[in-house]
Amino acid sequence: MSLTILSDSNVKDIIENLAYGELKEMQESMSKALHEYATGNQGDDACADQQPGRTVMSSAKYNTTSLFMPSRSSRGIGMKGSSSQIPLLCWSDTSTAPQGALTLMTPFGQPFGFINAEELTAFRTALASSILLSRRTKVKTLTVFGAGKQAYWHIRLALKLRGPTVRTVYIINREFNDRLRDLLKSLVSVDPDIKIAEGWWDTKFAALASNYGEYARMEKEQIRAADVIICTTPSTEPLFDEKILTSTEGRRRPRLIIAIGSYTKDMIELPKEILLQAVKIHGGGHHFHKHAEEGGVVVVDTLDGCFDKSGEIIQAGLTPKQIVELGELVMLEELHNTPEASSAIDDSQDSTETSSPLEMSGGKSIAHALRENSWESEASPKSPSRKSSFSGISRRASLVFRKRAESSSSSTQVKKQDPEQDQMSRWLSGGNVIYKSVGLGLMDLVAGTDLVRLAKEKGVGVTVEGF
């Protein structure tokens, strides 16, 4: 069997030049894997119960944290080993991008890929985040905290997927340092023909550093102007004052908030008050102040990982009933995605003209709607740890929805949504959605396997025959 070896420059060459269709194929692969992770049973290779835990090692001598992340799916077995330097300042000029490699094997253990993981790690994280970004009704203004590879790839994929709608990208960093300059240069210097093809040739980019005299005022304006907020720093304290988004004025605009920079219990990018606002269940009655819909849950990539590693989730004291995994929502996207809405440019509607908090029949939240059905229905056995973390709720509901999806997959006709499904879809596309990610080895395996396939098609990298 042949082994494909991809250097860092090989990986950059492939992902920088992805056609829209190729990127959507990779996004679909990621969606399916995360769906199986969240809703599968022990017979499914990618389900949570089949994923080995990560191993973390710290070195005081080298000031590094090393991660070993094994994974498996129906496509094969993956093992990524990486180390990243611990910054003395959360937004320092020192690169915190992990250095390492990903080894890929068939389900029978035959090696078929060996990939430099530096660019891959940032790309696969952004690829997972793009699943939610792609279905948003309005993606006009991005506000991004940080200036590293994660910031670059979240911006770059947003431009590849939603370029015609993106008008302004704000980048906020602690200092106007070399990393920030390099990030701006890499975005502005993209080939004009590519910008035209992707639809963002007139998009404006602006940088803001925390040592600027008007920082507090401009930070507030840029956060409130955002349709998507992306946090990519290993911060140990909230990046901004919670009142910017929890006040009456701050809650009027619907936003997708993506937080992927913090990955330990001591790190936190989002104020806990924002998470608590998101999971608050609103009762019935008239609301004097209009504000964006809340779903009653925070979306995560992995429940177990976030309860163990996410400072935001831990410090906010959230419970499993207030969390839903991204893979659980993929089904809703598949059944109820509306391309017309997800590609719209909403320039006519002012941000203050949003609806009141999402209330489903009987004052239920998204959390209730996902989890109220068939509690006593037969479900595939889960490991004790998974039962404990989910309290037997979230995965059962997902299996119910999964059966609905499977039963309707044979029909190509679009079926009318029931009111609650319509509400859930409306929240995902136009409500306040918070997504917290700490990363999964499964993401590396899925993205890496697709990269090997594309490398072979494009003749990129080194192939060792009969390895």
Structure description:
The chain has helices at residues 8-16, 20-39, 118-133, 149-162, 178-188, 192-198, 215-224, 243-246, 272-279, 303-309, 311-316, 326-336, 339-342, 366-371, 384-390, 394-408, 419-430, 441-458, and strands at residues 3-6, 55-59, 64-73, 76-85, 99-105, 111-116, 141-145, 168-173, 204-209, 228-231, 256-259, 298-300, 323-325, 433-436, 462-464. With 467 residues, it is of the alpha/beta class. It has an 8-stranded parallel sheet with strand order 9-8-7-10-11-14-12-13, with helices on both faces. A hairpin with a 2-residue loop joins β3 (64-73) and β4 (76-85). α2 crosses α3 (118-133), α3 (118-133) crosses α4 and α3 packs across α18.
Main sheet characteristics: 8 strands, parallel
Individual helix count: 18
- Describe the global form: globular
Round the Cα radius of gyration to an integer and report it. Answer: 21 Å
Helix content: 25-40%
Entry summary:
The chain is of the alpha/beta class and 467 residues long. 40% of the residues lie in helices and 17% in strands. It is globular.
Write the layout of secondary structure elements.
Layout lengths: L2 E4 L1 H9 L3 H20 L15 E5 L4 E10 L2 E10 L13 E7 L5 E6 L1 H16 L7 E5 L3 H14 L5 E6 L4 H11 L3 H7 L5 E6 L5 H10 L3 E4 L11 H4 L9 E4 L12 H8 L18 E3 L2 H7 L1 H6 L6 E3 H11 L2 H4 L23 H6 L12 H7 L3 H15 L10 H12 L2 E4 L4 H18 L3 E3 L3
Parallel strand pairs: 1-6, 7-8, 7-10, 8-9, 10-11, 11-14, 12-13, 12-14
Antiparallel strand pairs: 1-15, 2-3, 3-4, 4-5, 5-6
Helix pairs in contact: 1-3, 1-18, 2-3, 2-12, 2-18, 3-4, 3-18, 12-16
